[in-house]
Write a structure and sequence with these properties.
Elements (H helix, E strand, L loop, with lengths): L1 H5 L20 H9 L7 E5 L6 H14 L4 E5 H4 L15 E5 L8 H17 L3 E5 L11 H6 L4 E4 L6 H13 L6 H10 L4 H18 L5 H8 L10
Helix pairs in contact: 7-9, 9-10
Length: 238
């Protein structure tokens, strides 16, 4: 029972390709994923910073399989490794396997053996396999050389984080996706007063969206000042 419960833990509603903000740095990767990486590679390894969007892309790929009536297993090791390697038995028979947060178990011999066996099984059974970690697979401190080499059996791509001015563009784009617009004045106000990182801006957007719907008010500079002054979790620039 534990094995089944841990599969697809951490799947977030709304993580689809259509909700992923594509920067020029990630355009090639998105093209490969949308066309179906398994047409070219038996497995694919995504790596990059914590907030780059790796989990979003793995879950989006799983969602596409679900939409086709196929089975996919999403396994985030950061939260699932506590259940032990036996949980990987639950991916048998799935049409797609996506293992996230590999960093959580690298260096642990039992996990490396289990994951090496999983890679071997996916290859033998022609199951597409997705892997993701913060670290470049060529630089991972693996205990087992055979496991290290198997991480490179397919293609590997860095997922570049949204940064700088792209964060504001992503915020405006996400608002449009939700059905409302942020005016130029509002965007300039946010640029002057709030940190330009995706975690802060997306949390801010969620809060503003929910509060504006609840109060039936449009998002303006005055509304942001009023609402965000009461929200101590979002830092304000000095």
């Amino acid at each position: 029972m534990t094995q089944q419960l841990t599969l697809n833990v951490g799947m977030r509603e709304g993580h689809r390709f259509s909700s992923f903000f594509v920067t020029p740095e990630n355009a090639e990767l998105l093209g490969i994923l949308k066309n179906g990486f398994e047409r070219e590679f038996p497995q694919i390894f995504l790596w990059g910073d914590t907030e780059a969007g790796k989990s979003h892309l793995l879950q989006a790929y799983c969602e596409r399989y679900y939409q086709r009536g196929l089975m996919a297993a999403y396994v985030p090791l950061g939260s699932c490794a506590q259940y032990g390697t036996r949980m990987l038995a639950g991916v048998e028979g799935k049409h797609l396997v996506a293992v996230d947060e590999l960093d959580a178990v690298i260096g642990q011999r039992d996990w490396e053996v289990a994951l090496m066996n999983l890679i071997n099984a996916c290859r033998a059974n022609h199951q597409p396999l997705m892997l993701a970690a913060r670290t470049n697979p060529r630089e991972m401190a693996c205990v087992l050389p055979d496991f290290s080499s198997r991480l490179l059996w397919g293609a590997d791509y860095r997922v570049h984080p949204v940064h700088g001015a792209q964060c504001l563009q992503a915020m405006a784009w996400r608002a449009h996706q939700r059905g409302f617009e942020l005016s130029e004045q509002v965007m300039k106000y946010i640029e002057r007063h709030y940190p330009q990182n995706m975690t802060t801006l997306m949390a801010m957007l969620d809060h503003l969206d929910t509060t504006s719907l609840t109060k039936g008010r449009k998002i303006t500079r005055e509304f942001i000042r009023e609402v965000m002054q009461k929200n101590t979790t979002t830092p304000l620039l000095k």
